[in-house]
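Bit of a strange request maybe. I'm writing a small parser for structure token strings and I need a real example to test against, not something I typed by hand. Could someone generate the tokens for this chain?
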Amino acid sequence: MGLDIRKPIGLLFVILGLTLAVYGLTGDAAQYRKSNGRNINLTWGCVMTAVGGAFLLWSQKGASRSSSQ
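Reply from user aminoacidic:
Good idea to test on real output. This should exercise your parser:
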């Protein structure tokens, strides 16, 4: 089957995660008082980037496995 949605979803997560992480790094530290001093944007940006990377790796493994059959 030619439809593999893992790559676009992975790219979406990576782009949004990097955007959120950069915003967390460059944002105003005063806004994090509401979240007990935790930089939620940076944390979830890194998580989203990691999930997107996992999707991209998964799509590469799936593509190499299907081409060898």
